[in-house]
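Protocol step 4 of 5: obtain the predicted structure for the target chain.
Materials: sequence only (see below). No template structures provided, no constraints applied. The aim of this step is simply to have a reference model before the mutagenesis design in step 5. Sequence pasted as it appears in the construct record:
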Amino acid sequence: MKALCSFVVALLLTTVTFAQQAASPTQDPTALGNAFFKAMLDEDGTTMDKLLASDFRLTSFDGQTIEGEQLRQAVSGGYVVIETGVVSNTQTRQYNSDSAVMTGNWKIKGAIQGQPLVADAAFSVVSAKQGNDWKIVNLQFTPTK
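Step 4 output (structure tokens):
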């Protein structure tokens, strides 16, 4: 009986360890992009820090460039609030095992510095492998009708 209990405990621990490893969004460029949009929706600057490269740049709807730290502060500080955000039509293309581009559409409703934001946008998320992890290096939004 003890052997059976030990086997079950070992199996459970192995399953938990595997699930934790598989769940890391930095191990896959598509999961990385999806985790970014979830972090925006959750206003989770801590997760965003883990996803963005140190030299990250975002080109916003109006063509302005925002650095990673500015974006993280805006999201964490409530300056950018996404009430709803639906990602669709995604496609990820990977190049040479160390770079990838995820494209798709994002329909959002929220506010930027208290000003209402309702938009449909096409996006491109450019990711690069840094060490063993994928990081987002660039993100561009283009308004669509």
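Step 4 remarks: The first helix runs from residue 2 to 22. The longest strand covers residues 80-95.
Proceed to step 5.
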